Amino acid sequence: MASPYRSLPPLGTLRTFEAVARYLSFTKAAEELALTQSAVSHQMRALEEHLGARLFQRLHRGIELTTDGRTFLEGARAGLDSVMLASERVRNQRRVGVLTVAAPAAFAIWWLVPRLGRFAALHPEIEVRIATIDGREPDLWRDGVDVAVVKRPAKLAAGNPAEMPLLREVVYPVCSPSLLAGASPLHNPADLAQHSLIECEAAETEDVEFTWSTWLGRFGLQGAPVSRRLRFSHFGVALSAAVDGLGVALGRSPMVDAELAAGRLVRPFAKRVVAKASNVFALAWRDTDDTRQDQRIAAFRDFALDEACGCELAAGPCGMPASEKDARTQTGWMAGRATRRAMMTGQPLNGGSAHSPAGNAGISEAAFRPDRQPSGRDQPVQLRGWTELTRPARARGRQL
User: Fold this and answer.
1) Distance between CA atoms of 113 and 64, rounded to whole angstroms?
2) 245 contacts: CB under 8 Å, gap ≥ 6
3) Which of 32, 85, 210, 363 is most buried when burial is the number of CB atoms within 10 A of its CB?
4) Are 270 and 277 in contact, with CB atoms under 8 Å apart?
């Protein structure tokens, strides 16, 4: 019996074609596939000859897909995706205990990795593979990722059945303890003019709260001279520079919690002024019948929820108030955790569907707050986009 696939072009050229079409560049496709540019060009010529059609229009400074090229790309990607999915199923049957987790490098280094020991103790049968991806959101299918940590507006993450809000970053200045008593002591915001300001370029593209220009404006120091600025492309390097006493950085809790607890970093302005990030970290997974039954993903979601909520099982600093007498805070903390767990497991709340508006009836927006409650008795009060942490006995109306 003759093969029904004998008229297909060589399968290797399909992957090359998809890469060239994605980048619209022979050079970049060659780099991705570890081929020479001439080899990629030769494969595309052979593919066009096989199909009897031009797939690319050569321009003066690049290429673009022709109408036939766009038509063929749609089919090629559909076929490659089918092969990839089948391959994943086969691999997963052989590697039942492997779970691939994608996360931004800063989140993986400063939050996730230090907590993996507890997950390993709870689930020694599951091997965790961490893939750090920055600059773009992970593609769960193409990147071969089981679960991913992504940045989202809180409402979007809370309304997606395949995502779970974890936590919101809290931002505040941090520096080495040596700067507090050096030649130019750092005691109040006006003293920032005497110190280098450490900036993270990658973070600045994510949120205005991560930029010194925003903070200087709120401090009323827009036109004040600054000694200099140190700019880094990675948050981890910027944080290391702050630890080494090179200047003042904008710390992002919970990423800086361990450095603060160890005394390598301090908050020069105590707990007076902080800002909350616009987006939240959320956990995303593939929304398929197979993943809904995947015990590896279920176990990791449960672990991440415990860690983000700071419950008694968490390996990191506990987010539960130290005093259980604060019933209002405790109730809000428990409601948020219950809501996220219901959303994660698909169980209804208040008698409705967990993923429908009726299922969320009677649940306040605060229940979806992914930011952790401050520990102890300090309670946050929002002031002009800032949060001032105050003791209950202190005046609530203080303006900054």
Assistant:
1) 43
2) 175, 176, 178, 179
3) 210
4) no
Higher-confidence position of 388 and 227: 227
Cβ neighbours, 10 Å, residue 23: 16
- What is the DSSP code string of 317-355? ---S-S-TT-HHHHHHHHHHHHHHHHHHHT--STTS-TT
User: Cβ-count burial of 289 within 10 angstroms (0-12 exposed, 13-18 middle, 19+ buried)?
Assistant: exposed
Reduce the DSSP state of residue 62 to 3 states and report it: strand
The closest of 84, 161, 125, 101 to 344, measured between CA atoms, is: 161
Amino acid found at 75:
G
* Domains of the chain (ranges, CATH numbers): 11-94 (1.10.10.10), 169-277 (3.40.190.10)
Q: CA-based angle 156:157:163, to the nearest 5?
A: 140
Confidence of residue 382 (pLDDT cuts 50, 70, 90): very low
pLDDT at site 374: 37
Kindly give the pairing relationship between strand 98-103 and strand 127-132.
parallel
**For residue 254, is the peptide bond before it cis, meaning its omega torsion is within 30 degrees of 0?**
yes
Q: 96-123, pLDDT tens digit by residue?
A: 578 899 998 889 988 999 899 999 999 9
Q: CB neighbours (10 Å) of residue 351?
A: 9
SS3 130: strand
